């Protein structure tokens, strides 16, 4: 049980009484019931507060869950730092100091039962969707990625069947498929004007060319709301969030090819091998207006700090960096469906950080909905519901039309 007494002062301070009670109740209820089954009502009952009080402190259940996971991880890390400081900062008798350090370190996890119950509940839910995901103990984590520092991993989660996608090959496959079907791609053709008459759109691109079609598919990434305004539709409130990437040289002679993509639960960094280098990211999500994204040096420095405490990679060897926009809807679900108010205007937006891996499923879903069919059977069997990705759903800026 994580009690206020073991909570580091930095975390304890500034947490009002109610917020602390809610966080503790959430830790208990999420750990017992998992994220999906835990309700805000049961957390409110456990904390002895009203549901409204919870929403005064946290935007939604997801934010509450994320917040307690992050607080729990920070608590574990902070407590271990303190133990190391207490026993190893000034060595008087190496053997005695190491033994007392080891004993306190080994006994500390009992203080974190709720936090680890939460991590285990998260794993149980993830494995319902991805069955090969399992928990790994620190030794196995270090065998999988020998660059991890000893003592860094408390508990890991591994997806052995995860694969890397050759994005270029996937893209070329789609391009070939389109051309085989007599499709035509026109690059550098920004939509600048659109009007609809007798069930047909006439759109004008930036080169002044005009095109006609019964349906416009708005797949303009970070710019979907700008396109919506052009056709007279209500924006969905797309949030283009910047993500920075940088490359680090791998230690000389290290065979990187079998190393897994590795990241921490707080999402302060991730790294994955890319030939003789590591592709790394601070996993940043900074809101920007649509346009060219630039890598953020401060975020890179923060990720390097995190990488340094987690691994033995040489953080001085940043070779290059770049950034891109990952576009999210307010509820982080994609938007695939006809606009409820503007005829012939189809949304295909908000794939966030998963637009490559979800492309085959989402494209088939989009095609089915445009043809007026149900979502593909196999995707419905996996739980995909058209209303969950519809542009007029609750939480979008667009009101549904009934
Ligand atoms: C750093 C980074 C890492 C990522 N990692 C992953 C990952 O590991 N796995 C994964 O699955 N996904 C990942 N993604 C997300 C993935 O790249 C996106 O989800 C995907 O590219 C979205 O595709 P899209 O076609 O909807 O939008 P985009 O790729 O943004 O394409 C939109 C297009 O619309 C065009 N456009 C804009 N305005 C107009 C207009 N007025 N007229 C005509 N055209 C217009 C733009 O020029 C652009 O070509 C990552 C993204 C970033 C930035």
Can you tell me about this structure?
The protein is an alpha+beta fold. It folds into three domains: about 120 residues, Tetracycline Repressor, domain 2; about 130 residues, FAD/NAD(P)-binding domain, CATH 3.50.50.60; about 90 residues, D-Amino Acid Oxidase, Chain A, domain 2 (2-Layer Sandwich). It is built from 14 helices and 14 strands. Strand 3 and strand 4 form a beta hairpin. It starts with 8 loop residues before the first helix and ends in a 13-residue tail after the last helix. The structure holds flavin-adenine dinucleotide.
Mean pLDDT: 87
Distance between the termini: 49 Å
Output the CATH topology of the largest domain.
FAD/NAD(P)-binding domain
Bound molecules: flavin-adenine dinucleotide
Strand content: 15-25%
Helix content: 40-55%
Brief overview:
The protein is an alpha+beta fold and 402 residues long.
Quick tags:
402 residues; alpha+beta; Tetracycline Repressor, domain 2; FAD/NAD(P)-binding domain; D-Amino Acid Oxidase, Chain A, domain 2; six-stranded antiparallel sheet; three-stranded antiparallel sheet; disordered N terminus; binds flavin-adenine dinucleotide
Set out the fold topology.
Layout: H1 9-12, H2 17-37, H3 40-47, H4 51-57, H5 61-88, H6 94-107, H7 113-129, E1 134-136, H8 138-144, E2 156-158, H9 167-180, E3 191-197, E4 200-205, E5 210-213, E6 216-218, H10 224-231, E7 239-249, E8 262-263, E9 270-274, E10 277-281, E11 286-287, H11 297-310, E12 318-328, E13 335-338, E14 345-349, H12 359-370, H13 377-381, H14 386-389
Parallel strand pairs: 6-14
Antiparallel strand pairs: 1-2, 3-4, 4-5, 7-10, 7-11, 7-12, 8-9, 9-10, 13-14
The structure holds flavin-adenine dinucleotide.
């Amino acid at each position: 049980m994580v009690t206020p007494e073991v909570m580091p002062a930095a975390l304890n301070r500034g947490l009002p009484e109610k917020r602390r009670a809610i966080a503790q109740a959430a830790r208990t209820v999420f750990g017992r019931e998992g994220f999906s089954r835990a309700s805000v009502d049961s957390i409110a009952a456990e904390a002895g507060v009203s549901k409204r009080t919870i929403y005064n402190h946290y935007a939604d259940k997801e934010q509450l869950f994320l917040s307690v996971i992050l607080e729990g991880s920070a608590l574990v890390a902070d407590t271990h730092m303190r133990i190391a400081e207490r026993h190893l900062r000034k060595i008087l008798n190496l053997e005695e100091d190491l033994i007392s350090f080891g004993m306190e370190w080994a006994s500390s996890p009992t203080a974190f039962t709720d936090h680890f119950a939460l991590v285990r509940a998260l794993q149980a839910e993830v494995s319902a969707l991805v069955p090969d995901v399992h928990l790994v103990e620190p030794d196995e984590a270090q065998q999988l990625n020998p660059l991890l520092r000893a003592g860094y991993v408390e508990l890991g989660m591994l997806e052995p069947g995860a694969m890397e996608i050759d994005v270029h090959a996937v893209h070329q496959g789609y391009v070939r498929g389109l051309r085989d079907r007599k499709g035509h791609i026109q690059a550098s053709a920004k939509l600048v004007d659109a009007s609809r008459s007798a069930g047909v759109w006439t759109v004008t691109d930036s080169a002044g060319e005009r095109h006609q079609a019964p349906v416009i598919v708005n797949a303009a990434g970070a710019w979907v709301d700008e396109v919506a305004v052009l056709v007279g539709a209500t924006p969905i409130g797309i949030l283009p969030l910047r993500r920075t990437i940088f490359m680090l040289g791998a230690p000389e002679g290290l065979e990187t090819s079998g190393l897994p993509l590795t990241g921490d639960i707080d999402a302060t960094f991730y790294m994955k091998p890319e030939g003789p280098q590591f592709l790394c990211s601070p996993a940043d999500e900074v809101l920007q207006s649509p346009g060219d994204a630039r890598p953020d040096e401060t975020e890179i420095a923060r990720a390097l700090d995190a990488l340094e405490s987690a691994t033995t990679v040489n953080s001085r060897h940043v070779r290059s960096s770049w950034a891109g926009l990952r576009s999210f809807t307010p509820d982080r679900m994609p938007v695939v469906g006809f606009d409820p108010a503007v005829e012939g205007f189809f949304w295909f937006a908000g794939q966030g950080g998963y637009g490559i891996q979800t492309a085959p499923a989402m494209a088939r879903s989009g095609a089915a909905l445009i043809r007026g069919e149900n979502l593909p059977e196999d995707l419905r069997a996996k739980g995909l519901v058209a209303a969950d990705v519809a542009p007029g759903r609750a939480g979008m800026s667009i009101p549904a039309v009934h």
